[in-house]
Model the fold of this input.
Amino acid sequence: MRKRSRARSSWLAIWADACSLGIEASSVIGLRTMKLAIGGKAAATEAQRMVSEKIEAGLALQAKALSGGLGTTALSVAAKTLDHYLPKVRANHTRLAKGAARRPYRPKRRWLTRW
Done:
């Protein structure tokens, strides 16, 4: 992960990063929904991974907050919270998008009849 070089000194920069994270998260939700809708062992594994990742990320952020790792101002807390979640969402998007490109969904054509 590359380190951000720009300083987040305004709420506008935080808002832009939050919007970016929201768009990426919604695409991860869509990719996960497709994977879960197909079913099978991969869907069960993905469901377990999704729940465990959410719990793990939440607990890690809570530990940072309790230890003072998020900072003392509201601006720094917001920035470090986004920095905590963004790499995780990006990694999920990359992993799920590769899987979707590798195994495209091809429905069975049961409704076609032979003449």
